[in-house]
Amino acid sequence: MAMRSDVQALGPVAADARSPPAGDVAANVSYLATADATPRERRVAWTVVAVSVLLFAVAVPYAKVWLGEVPAFVPAHESALIITSLITAIILLGQYMRLRSLAVLALACGYLFDALIIVPHFMSFPGVFAPGGLIGGGTQTTAWLYILWHGTFPFFVIAYALLRQADTQREGLAPPALAVAAIAFVAVLVLAIVVVATVGGDYLPAIIANNLKTPTTTYAVIAIWALCIAALLTLWRTGVRSSLDVWVAVVMVAWILDIALSALLNAGRYDVGFFFGRLYGLAAASFVLAVILLETSGLHSRLATTAASLNAQVRESLARQERTEAQLRQAQKMEAIGNLTGGMAHDFNNLLAIVIGNLDILVSHRKDDQEVRQLGGEALDAALRGADLTQRLLAFARRQPLQPKRVDLNQLIGNITRLLSRTLSEDIEITLDLDPKLWPVVIDPAQLDAGLTNLATNARDAMPKGGSLIVVTGNRHLDADYAAEHADVTPGDYAMIEVSDTGEGMAPDVVTRIFEPFFTTKEQGKGTGLGLSMVYGFMKQSGGHINVYSERGIGTTFRLYLPRLPVDAAAGEQPGATAALEGNGETVLAVEDNVALRRVVVRQLHELGYRVLEADSASAALAVLEKEKIDVLFTDVVMSGGMSGIDLAHHARQQWPAIRVLITSGFPDTKFNGNGNGNGNGHNGRPAPGRLLNKPYRKEDLARALREVLAS
């Protein structure tokens, strides 16, 4: 039989582990009595009916052929009937206890009645236990027990059909109490029939004489047929919907065939009709039980399949949890490393700002001294390399200052590819596959240039004998399922850049560490280990995502996902640098709490032609602002005293709207949009009201920044 999609408990044992309390089960568990019959089930039932009718037609011509007396047949046959009917009754009672359906209770009582009435029937059968039967009575006792047995069962089927139509579920008596009352009723009914057939046997018309039927048999059988047909019609009228409905209808067909062969078309006991009719009766009693057992077997198979599926899901869930935990640990590790390196970069930037500033002054003042120029230039180059190193650390820590603007990625990639074709080896072929409908994005183009150059350089190193570098762009939507697998991803639309090589590839343990700062697989002195960490930090800081796939001997693919720019969004353009870098006597207030660095800044500003005032804190700067007219406020971000440079700049803008602001920091938490107006996230979430100059900076960087601020 076809199994249902839910758990279909077919009896007390199958349902017990899953059944909710009585009264709630019908809505949650599908029983044979409630589950709709499937088309396949109906076809099987009709096939059984057709085969039964066909066998009946074959047996009819031989119904009166005597086969010989077989005393053991009756107890064997009726013992099987008792067991089959009793088991069916118990299972149906179990279903009633959960469904509280009086229809199911009525049918259970019918099968219980069969099991109980059969006992006195075969105990009274002549020649089985005694020549005149074991329980006594008259010569008609056995025959009348048979007639009353077969005539009473259809009443239970009619009751089942009528009660099922009403979908009767009664409150009042608890199911156990009502079941006990029903069992008691059946027992009393059986006892009454036995009394009628034994004590009152002499008053009943003769049904059989000398093992042959009498005319009364015909009338009795016709009455039973009428009851069976009435039961079938009642079932049909009320709708044959459930599996149990279908098989009860089949039972009634077999019941009619049983009566026809064993009590109407045959001649008497022990002929073909006698034996075949009783076999139909056994089949009729077995249909419902057989279906229950087949369904239960199928249920066990389905439960085994479901258990295997659940085990697989549990394993997958555990694997997913392990992957998520590993990603979390990796993210926490990267965040911890980022915080450490970011803090170090801030301190180094302040130190390097002093070194670079003093070296600039020294070299500019001793231009005629060849030795000073040489030694100072070498020291300055080393300091600038240190500044580049701290910038990469800030990029990994996602705290580098960005100047994002609207970018056409295809154009940017085309420009950088032309440069790469001259720097990569000649045996590396560069292939572009750019989507002409690629979505625009807002990023810092210089940082993306650096990131793509780094990826191309790594690809070159992975292909010492040459190969292919393939750059692909396309539009992608990262859905919630992908985001669930990658904790740092926000679902949405992204422009994707895919950079692939046909190089040596990487082992899985290397792939898991490639974004860690200072991790490198290159030889000593051939790599800092900060290139990919810079790309990683830039992508995260830009709201994007990067992933990598690599196989040894096949190659590596990096995919960079950048958030799509909304259609109605706009981004400012970086203003061009002014031609004249010298000051014209404008007043600059330099606010820096580091004494050595402030001394360098003040000297640089003087040499650039500015009038310079200085302050070591925000509060001191406010005091100067109250007394002096200031053209440019040049302030550090992180200072002692409880008031940051961002807060100072806001206060100054509110009090003196005409003042220009230039902000510097070695550890900026700010994001600038490139137009110099601070449309980004500033310190403590406040927009930064001015241009940003990142530490460490050269004297000409300071000069250019001041002219841009004054010209804005």
Describe the 3D structure:
- With 712 residues, the chain is α/β, with parallel strands linked by helices.
- The chain has three domains: 12-307, Up-down Bundle (Rhopdopsin 7-helix transmembrane proteins), CATH 1.20.1070; 404-563, Heat Shock Protein 90 (2-Layer Sandwich), CATH 3.30.565; 587-711, Rossmann fold, CATH 3.40.50.2300.
- Helix content is 55%, strand content 11%.
- The chain is built from 19 helices and 14 strands.
- It has helices at 12-16, 39-59, 73-99, 102-123, 141-165, 175-198, 215-238, 243-264, 272-365, 370-396, 409-423, 445-462, 480-485, 508-511, 531-541, 595-607, 618-627, 645-655, 699-711, and strands at residues 208-209, 212-213, 405-407, 428-433, 441-443, 467-478, 492-501, 545-551, 555-563, 587-591, 611-615, 632-636, 660-665, 691-694.
- The strands form four sheets. It has a five-stranded mixed sheet. The protein has a five-stranded parallel sheet with strand order 11-10-12-13-14, with helices on both faces.
- Helix 18 (645-655) links the parallel strand 12 (632-636) and strand 13.
- The protein is rod-shaped and about 150 Å long.
- The chain starts with 11 loop residues before the first helix and ends with a helix.
Strand fraction band?
5-15%
Structural class: alpha/beta
The strand count comes to: 14
Low-confidence stretches: 1-29, 570-579, 668-685
